[in-house]
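I'll show a sample.
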Amino acid sequence: MQARKIVMDPFCLKQFDPSKVGAILINFDVAAFTERINELYLQVKEQGGLKEGYAPFCKHLFVENFTDA
């Protein structure tokens, strides 16, 4: 079975847009960021990489910060 890919929700894109006043900027290419998150997920997937969230449909993937944010 192939792992599902994690995708960037449009709601998150403002964090990558320097023109958004007041947003905390993640100075990283969105495609590269998404690919890195998918790589990290695959590394921890076998160890139960996603943690339970506040609802059954909500899961958390905790990763060390690899940006300058």
In short: The chain has one domain: 10-60. The helical segments are 30-44.
